[in-house]
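user:
I keep going back and forth on a fold encoding question. Separate attempts, laid side by side, tell us more than any discussion would. Would you put together a sequence-and-structure record for a protein of your own picking? Write it directly below this note and I will take it from there.

assistant:
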Amino acid sequence: MPAQQKKIIFCIAGVLSFACALGTAAAIGTQRWVKGMILCKTGALLVNATGQELEKFIGKIQYGLFYGERVRQCGLGGRPLQFSFFPDLLKIIPASIHVSVILFCTVLIVFALLGAGFFMFNAFGSPYETLHGPVGLYLWSFIGCSCGCLIMILFSSEVKIHHLSEKIANFKEGSFTFKTHSEQFANSFWVILVCSLVHFLNALLIRFAGFQFPFSKSKDSGTITGAVDLMY
């Protein structure tokens, strides 16, 4: 492939990596990771609410990695409540998983920036054969994609397996019990998925530019090596 086309491909990959870093940083600071509806089970059972009456006992909840908001509704109107994970909810959430998600988000940002820098360096500079060359580009893309996948797996397990929404809804609730009526992942969670796909796309762009995967060997080199061995 001509050098000019390689520069264009590396520039595109660098811009995509930088956009992933910005997107992940923005996603960390929002509360739009999960949104859902919570049912005041105790209040609904007390009045035997059904149909449209049940809507008076359904509140809202949305949260991110650091803070969130819930609207507590038990038949007397909505009462919004702000909360933060650190230190308010630290005792009731799976702290190790939650902290791991934050750490992997940080690692994703760092390696997305590294990938963007080295893509641009390979486009306009003189690439080295180690971490600056194709091996490094594959490495940054692989680590970024892996971190994105780990973030989604860990956070999904925290929400679905450990019932994070119900734990938040029932925090410091004495006489009322809340149950998750519905929940879904919001925009910030899907930003991480897009970033993972972008890093995978960058690896394909490197291959499209004409660079083989670092661990693959060409047939010509194997043939030459075999001929040399026969000489000895």
About this structure: Residues 3-33+87-175+185-210 form one domain. The two ends are 37 Å apart (CA to CA). Residues 218-232 have pLDDT under 50 and may be disordered.
